[in-house]
Amino acid sequence: MSVMLLRVGFMADGIWKALVGISMLVFFPFLVDELRAPGLLLALTSIAVLASAIAELAYAARSGARSHVKHLIAYDSAWVLVSVAALTVAASNADLAWILWLGYQVVAAPVVALVFGAGARKGGRSASASPPRRR
User: Rounded to the nearest 10 degrees, what angle do helices 3-26 and 39-62 cross at?
Assistant: First the structure.
């Protein structure tokens, strides 16, 4: 897979996360007042998701190396599974559903932000990346 294609993928995922984080803030009153989302957890989650988006966008701009694909797959796959679990629980216990959905993100998003932030600062080279060849 080409670095350009990887960069586009990281950029798209970062934009998606930014849209989710911004949507949480824009719809905060509705989510809290009408859908009973826990306000503090929602606020913390929106900040965590936005931080993750910023780190991922920085990584896409500076590197986009293949070494970080596994982190996206793990984060996004777990997010889908937690979303399904939260939707399953929501009919009987909306409070638990919110805690599951927001709780996953408030824990996982900062981890992803740290991983991608470190990758952006290093220009994408991870500890497992092979050193550059000398000529």
Answer: 160
